[in-house]
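Open question from group meeting: does this chain pack into something compact, or does most of it stay loose? Before anyone orders reagents, we agreed to write out a predicted structure and look at it together. Recording both the input and the output here so the notebook holds the full record.
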Amino acid sequence: MTKKTQSQLVVDLQGQSIETLDDFWDAVTGACGLPQWFGRNTEAWRDTIQARGICEVIDHHDVLVVHVDQHGLFAAGNREARALRSAFAGRQSRLVVHELS
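Structure tokens returned:
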């Protein structure tokens, strides 16, 4: 029996200054090949990474994994990031927040 290996699109944003949602959208737009008309909001992001059919680069992979530092937007307790983090809930995407040493 052959088992299909999941392909992953890994976007490593560690070391980048991501202080706001706009910084996050700027960082993932090129890496994920988001279309110019992408909505730059958490609802549009959720549709893109969960429902699919919006972005060929993401759709070409089974799983999207985004690595970020626990700083700025992704600092503990940042309310602005809560909705963004919840968009990653699901089998097709993961947000990995790395503690700074």
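Observations to bring back to the group:
The chain has one domain: 8-98.
The helical segments are 21-32, 42-51, 56-59, 79-87.
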